[in-house]
């Protein structure tokens, strides 16, 4: 009796479509991450058009930006547990659907209050997508080496989103106004759902516990702290004092809930690990400076220097191009010298970049000096952030990689929220004191320089 051996050509024919499907699915997961991050930067160059359309002030623009990041940052602390409990693919797809529908509604928003509320909904959807993405990639690529390459591809989309945001936003605003920056998310969401519809990324349900009371308290703390800074920038001192007192009270409630919780939102063991606290401070400082700068500069470039939206987007290229080009260099430095040198160099470059930007704004020296400041800042970000992930993961106790990753992302988004609030408040206080928007922007970049220098010094001293 003759046994027929399977043809190797048949095996290759089966493997090739499977590989293509897996690649397409990874592209869909990465595209969702791109969409989430794009929404953090694409609105920046639309600020003047949005303000004119909805008749709002700088404080209103701050809430249009931070309404997204407040909820995104706070829910990142628990969204990993939600993903594990209900199945990552279900949480991911629900987040993408809500993001697409919410973006469409944002484009139709008739008033600022409705827009801010819808931006908060987008923050919920974004928090659902990001941790679930990592679980889906793990399911899709069980082999460790393949998974490492897949995660690198997924992470590379962050640089692309940061680089594309101002330019895409400027082009869309120039063509169709601020509402177009939200409409672009709708076809992206549809494409993501189509690419990730296969069975390969289906993840089982788990039984992780979630303390929703502590999670809600953490969200309230961040929102009230943001409101305090925005009110101070508008020189609404009674409002700022009331929100500041409420922030302290909400913080006490959060700490009490955390101490009593069987499933705390923040793992205190992680915070006590050597170097983790300083690393989290660096992550917060990077996003503080980046998001705050992306909020302040478009207002200055368009309102003071009369640049068009697309010209404003192109003006940010010295800042954003290093996000795409420099991370491979940073990776090689980390392999040879460790994570500390590029982190410390990155924070020094960001400090110098903020000082140069502050001086350029103060002296009205033209675009050349501003471009130098943007380039230094962009290089600093592209050195510090990739190395920081390595440093944080290396300092985390065994078995806590997922939790510390979630904590790092939440801290970074909290820094982004406070950066928009604090740097925007500096501009408002400077203008309110009669110094003008230019001087106010100088104060904003000096504040960012202090934040970068302080966090870098803490990291240097952490050993």
TrEMBL record:
A Pfam match: MFS_1
CDD domains from the UniProt entry: MFS_MMR_MDR_like (cd17321)
InterPro entries listed in its UniProt record: MFS, MFS_dom, MFS_trans_sf
Membrane topology note: Multi-pass membrane protein
Major localization listed first in the record, in broad terms: membrane
Keyword Zinc-finger among UniProt keywords: no
A GO cellular-component term linked to this record: plasma membrane
SUPFAM superfamilies named among the record's database cross-references: MFS general substrate transporter
Membrane spanning stretches: 24-43, 63-82, 94-115, 121-141, 153-174, 180-200, 212-231, 237-257, 269-290, 310-329, 341-361, 367-395, 416-437, 443-461
GO molecular function: transmembrane transporter activity
Domain Major facilitator superfamily (MFS) profile: 25-463
Tree of life domain: Bacteria
Subcellular location field: Cell membrane
This protein's UniProt keywords: Membrane, Transmembrane, Transmembrane helix, Transport
PANTHER family associated with the record: MAJOR FACILITATOR SUPERFAMILY MULTIDRUG TRANSPORTER MFSC
Designated name of the protein: MFS transporter
Taxonomic path: Bacteria, Bacillati, Actinomycetota, Actinomycetes, Streptosporangiales
Gene name, Swiss-Prot/TrEMBL: mmr
């Amino acid at each position: 009796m003759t046994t027929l051996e399977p043809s190797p050509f048949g095996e290759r024919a089966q493997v090739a479509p499977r590989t293509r499907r897996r690649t397409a699915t990874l592209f869909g997961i990465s595209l969702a991450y791109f969409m989430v991050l794009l929404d953090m930067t694409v609105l920046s160059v639309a600020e003047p058009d949005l303000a004119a359309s909805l008749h709002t002030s700088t404080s209103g623009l701050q809430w249009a930006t931070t309404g997204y990041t407040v909820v995104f940052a706070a829910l990142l602390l628990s969204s990993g547990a939600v993903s594990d409990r209900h199945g990552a693919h279900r949480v991911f797809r629900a987040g993408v659907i809500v993001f697409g529908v919410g973006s469409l509604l944002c484009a139709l928003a008739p008033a600022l209050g409705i827009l801010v509320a819808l931006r908060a909904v987008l923050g919920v959807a974004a928090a659902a997508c990001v941790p679930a993405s990592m679980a889906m990639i793990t399911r899709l690529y069980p082999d460790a080496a393949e998974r490492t390459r897949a995660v690198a591809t997924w992470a590379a989309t962050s640089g692309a989103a940061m680089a594309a945001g101002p330019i895409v936003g400027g082009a869309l605003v120039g063509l169709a106004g601020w509402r177009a920056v939200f409409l672009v998310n709708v076809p992206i969401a549809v494409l993501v759902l189509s690419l990730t519809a296969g069975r390969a990324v289906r993840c089982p349900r788990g039984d992780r516990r979630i303390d929703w009371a502590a999670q809600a308290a953490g969200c309230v703390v961040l929102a009230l702290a943001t409101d305090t800074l925005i009110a101070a920038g508008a020189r609404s001192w009674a409002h700022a004092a009331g929100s500041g007192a409420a922030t302290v009270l909400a913080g006490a409630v959060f700490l009490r809930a955390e101490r009593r919780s069987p499933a705390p939102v923040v793992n205190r063991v992680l915070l006590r690990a050597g170097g983790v606290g300083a690393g989290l401070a660096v992550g917060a400082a990077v996003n503080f400076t980046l998001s705050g700068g992306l909020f302040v500069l478009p207002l200055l470039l368009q309102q003071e220097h009369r640049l068009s939206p697309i010209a404003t987007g192109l003006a940010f290229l010295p800042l954003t191009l290093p996000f795409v080009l420099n991370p491979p260099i940073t990776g090689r430095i980390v392999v040879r010298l460790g994570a500390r040198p590029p982190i410390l160099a990155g924070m020094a470059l960001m400090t110098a970049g903020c000082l140069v930007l502050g001086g350029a704004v103060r002296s009205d020296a033209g675009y050349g000096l501003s471009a130098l400041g943007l380039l230094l800042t962009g290089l600093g970000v592209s050195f510090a952030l990739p190395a920081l992930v390595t440093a944080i993961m290396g300092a985390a106790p065994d078995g806590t990689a997922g939790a510390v990753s979630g904590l790092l992302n939440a801290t970074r988004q909290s820094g982004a929220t406070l950066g928009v609030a604090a740097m925007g408040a500096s501009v408002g206080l400077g203008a309110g004191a009669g110094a003008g928007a230019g001087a106010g922007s100088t104060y904003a970049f000096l504040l960012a320089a202090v934040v970068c220098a302080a966090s870098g010094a803490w990291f240097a001293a952490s050993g």
